[in-house]
Amino acid sequence: MSGSRSVNRPEPRGERGELLRLIRRIQGLTLELNTLRRLDGADPELHAKERALEQLRWRLAVVARGAADDFGAAA
Length: 75
What we know:
Strand content: under 5%
Shape: elongated
Oligomer: single chain
Mean pLDDT: 80
Largest sheet: none
Distance between the termini: 35 Å
Helix content: over 70%
């Protein structure tokens, strides 16, 4: 059996689940941006996606920081 993730496995809940969702959205948006940059670097859609990616990165930092704080408090 391979190490790939099961399609039927439920997503984790809470901060860990949010971290995973944010990472997946960032990965997908990064791929889209790379494609748009190759096609036409001055496209308004490109700029909108770049702003969205930046917002996702900030959100990821906030959630990760909160998860790290919770982890430290549990120890």
